Amino acid sequence: MGVDQVGRDQLARLLYGGRVSIGIGFFSAVIIMTVGITVGTAAGYYGKFVDDVVMWFINTLNSIPFILLLLIVSLLFKPNATMLTIFIGVLSWTGISRIIRGQIFQVKEMDYVTAARALGAPTLKMVVRHILPNVIPIVIIYAAQIIGGVILFESALSFLGLGIMPP
Predict the structure, then answer these.
(1) Which domain holds residue 125?
(2) 70 located within any domain
(3) Measured between alpha carbons, how far is 133 from 74 in angstroms, rounded to an integer?
């Protein structure tokens, strides 16, 4: 690939940039999964008022264009890898939360969850032991999609000049 005008190796810069992008994608996905699974599980399991409040907040957050939110954050703060990771993670959890909520609604009506509830299992144990393991396959698939999406958002911000600056 050669060198640039200053004499820096282009392949080395490309590999280093890819490493940074994958790191941002992975750690943002961890934040997205943590927040999304927690909020979606609470909304799906408790239902009624909690579900209404969570869904209102998710719908409100989804009504604002995501790239606009990231542009505002990038203009307010100096863009670096940590800032992008945190803000992409904090702003992107709504999709997985809706998916988890729907799955929790479905799984909590299964016979084994009803039996655990009838036997007096504590709520936390029932959620962790009986409900969440049945949602994990969907979470794994969605996590792989999120990593790619985060890398695309990061590259869009960099294209606009608001992403991570080259050395």
Answers:
(1) 10-159
(2) yes
(3) 37
* pLDDT tens track for 69-81: 877 887 788 778 8
Structure tokens at 128: 């962790």
The structural domain count of the chain equals 1
Residue 109: give its domain's CATH number: 1.10.3720.10
- Give residue 161's identity as a one-letter amino acid code: G
120 φψ region: left (φ > 0), alpha (ψ -120 to 50), beta (else)? left
Task: Tell whether 61 is covered by a domain.
Answer: yes
> pTM for the whole thing?
0.85
Determine the 3-state secondary structure of 3 from DSSP: strand
Tokens of 50: 């909690």
What distance in Å separates the CA atoms of residue 117 and residue 119, rounded to the nearest whole number? 5
What pLDDT digit, counting tens, does each position of 40-96 carry? Answer: 999 999 988 999 999 999 999 999 888 888 778 877 887 788 888 898 888 889 999
